[in-house]
# Entry
Amino acid sequence: MKKILIIDDEEKIRAAYRNVLAQEGFEVVEARDAAHGISEILRNQDINLVLLDIKMPGMNGGNVKDLVGRFDLPLKFIVSSVYCVDDQRRYVPGADDYFDKVQGVDVLIEKVKRVLGCLT
# Structure
């Protein structure tokens, strides 16, 4: 079972993603902010994918990806934000994919499965 970490400061977003990802058979871990997310990554080194919000209190998603990248962990990142995808690419370069939250959960699931190699 693939494990996904959702780092987002909005409880409604985390709950929606958690529910739909769990229904698809993924194990889900959540973090309410960047610092908690980094802690979860270091504590749960079996995480396969991080769904990463950009704008959060304290530290933004780009900082999270840069910091975690120093640990050379085999993580995939999908940036999940209300910013358009072009802006997401500028704010968090080098992610495995980008998701505009207005695209809907069906698009998110497709991107998650593709990034994790779960599409048949």
About this structure: The CA atoms of residues 78 and 112 lie 8 Å apart. The longest strand covers residues 76-81. Strands lie at 3-7, 27-31, 49-52, 76-81, 97-100.
